[in-house]
Amino acid sequence: MSSSSSSGDPAAAAVASTSSSSPEPAWHADKRALYLAAAKPKMYAVALIPVAVGAAAAFASGGGVSGAASAAAATSSKSAAPTVVVPASALLSALASASLSFLARATTGACLVVAWLNLSNDAFDHGTGVDNLGQGKPESVVSLVAGGKAWPVHAVALLCFVSGSLLLASALGFDVSAAALTPPWLTEAAAVARSKLSSVAAAVGGKLSSVAGTVSATAEAVASAASSSAAAVVPDSVAAASTAATEGVGGVVGGVLAPVASLFHGGGGGAGAAAAAAMTTTAAASATTTTAAVAAAAAAAIPLPALSPTPPDPRPARLLAAAVAAGYLYQGPPFRLSRKGLGEPLAFVAFGPLATVAFALAAGNAAFLAGLRAKVTAIAAAQASSSLSNKAAAAATAAATAAWPLPLATPAAAAAAVVVGMTTASVLFCSHFHQIEGDRAAGKLSPLVRLGAVDGARVLASGVAGVYAFVIAAAALGALPPLAAAVAALASLPKGIALAARAAREGGDASRIRTLKLDALGWHGAFGMALALGLVLPRAAAAVASFVLGA
Fold it and tell me: Are 410 and 319 in contact (CB under 8 A)?
């Protein structure tokens, strides 16, 4: 850290004083360990678990498909619309395709946003002096990679944030193509610029064509005169070469100008223009015939509904935007709420009720729309086979869409979101055990700075026990399926006990307790993945059985 920044920041000066007077821990000299700590590979579990648990909760509750089916059945019974059976293979194929696409984009986008959080946190902390050597944060990316400069880390963090946000928006069903993201005023300006360039190019091309014509005519006259005056002494081969050179002048000029003209006009003049016009006329006639055929077919076809909302369901995007805002409030100026001990509540809200519920709703949307497409395809096939009238097809299609929009959160999604939020907050809580002295010197009032290591270990043990108590209560009240609660509790309990025991045993030793957050991540990951597995198992088994039996 530069001397200017240290002299201008009392907190930085305090950390620098502490660093100079305290011996450097042995692990600070291990560059491999420092780089691994800076990369935080296991930290990305906090990005993956909300996606996995949210998608599993949507799948367990039918992902919108069972709700759509029940609503369709109710509507069909009222409107006397016939029931159209969707083949199990077609439905499973549609759901698998939609789910894999959603999961790939959502997990990648979430990991990039968490990378933004990690990198920008190091960059913001650099200004407070926390990342000084000694009792501070030597594993900071700013110190290790960026040579003590925060702006390159901020730039990479911003790139991660933008790309992650675009992937998440794509997973939620938004159009993130260049055309959709370009502001209208920029599109209009580009169109005006292209028009002006086209006019200039056309004018220059016309003048060059005129000059080329003059040069060609002059060359022909010279060649003719030379040919007539020296016809007796000039061999035929030389005359042929002269003629070829004369024709070559026009050919070269034409070869240069034709591509330029085609860039702005789509073709040349003369015969080329006539050919292009003929092709255009033929294409227009064909398009007219095709359009008429499509219109005639559409008049007799099923009045299909919009298979995706326009615009897409905005609720998941709003929830994720609020989660990102909470992440900035945690670390970004002028708020820096982590310095006031509010990091854990923000982590609970951001990764639990906000992110997990958002991903559950988004996964439900994706599954619902996939099921709707399969349903409408079956209706179209039934109508094409003349077993369904237009009126009955319209009623069945309307029934298929009756469940839209989906409810914000099912009981399973809400309960699972609370669990994810609690375990994520424990990860952040454990990451401060080895930084108590550095945080205190920098004026960062984390909960462990206020509590101390001993009382902090007790609070952690109470929090671990509280997660299991909540899961049992949620299962007893019917919010969580009993199987999901049992699988999650049994699979993660050994890691939870070991986490609490280690904090009580080593909480006061900064050199040994520094990896406690990795234990917390292991518990968080085990709990989340077991919970997702428990949520998915019953319906997955039923789907496989249905597929095997051909239902």
Answer: no
pLDDT bin (cut points 50, 70, 90) of residue 363 is very high
Contact in structure between 458 and 503 (CB atoms under 8 Å): no
3-class SS of residue 99: helix
Neighbours of 93 (CB within 10 A): 14
Mean pLDDT score of the chain? 76
Nearest residue to 413 (alpha-carbon basis) of 460, 479, 323: 479
Is residue 82 helix, strand or coil? coil
Helices (H), 40-177: 45-60, 65-79, 88-126, 141-144, 151-171
Nearest to 524 by CA among 477, 474, 488, 476: 488
Q: How many CA atoms lie within 13 A of 55 on its CB side?
A: 24
How far is the C-alpha of 398 from the C-alpha of 404, rounded, in Å? 11
Which of 441, 446, 472, 471 shows the shortest CA–CA distance to 459? Answer: 446
> Quick one: which of 19, 1, 145 has its CA closest to 441?
19
pLDDT at 3: 36
Nearest to 513 by CA among 401, 398, 429: 429
CA distance 384 to 215: 67
What is the maximal distance between C-alpha atoms in the chain? 116
Q: Which of 523, 511, 520, 330 is nearest to 436 (CA)?
A: 511
Contact 489, 471 (CB under 8 A): yes
CB 150 within 8 A of CB 288: no
And the tokens for 247? 């024709």
Neighbours of 457 (CB within 10 A): 25
User: Is the pLDDT confidence value at 228 over 80?
Assistant: no
Cis amide linkage into residue 41, ω under 30° from 0: no
**What separation in angstroms does the CA of 268 have from each of 203, 208, 233, 246?**
14, 14, 41, 22
pLDDT value at position 99?
A: 85
Instruction: Give burial (CB, 10 Å; 0-12/13-18/19+) of 311.
Output: exposed
- pTM of the prediction? 0.72
Residue type, 465: A
- Specify the range with the lowest mean pLDDT, choosing from 58-67, 173-182, 260-269, 327-336: 260-269
The DSSP secondary structure of 249-290, one letter per residue, reads HHHHHHHHHHHHHHHHHSS-STHHHHHHHHHHHHHHHHHHHH
Q: Which one of 103-117, 284-298, 399-413 scores highest in mean pLDDT?
A: 103-117
Distances (CA, A) of 482 to 353, 425, 471, 486, 534: 21, 24, 9, 6, 9
Question: What is the distance, to the nearest Å, from the Cα of residue 473 to the centroid of all Cα atoms in its chain?
Answer: 34
- Write the CB contacts of 327 (distance below 8 Å, at least 6 apart in sequence): 113, 117, 346, 350
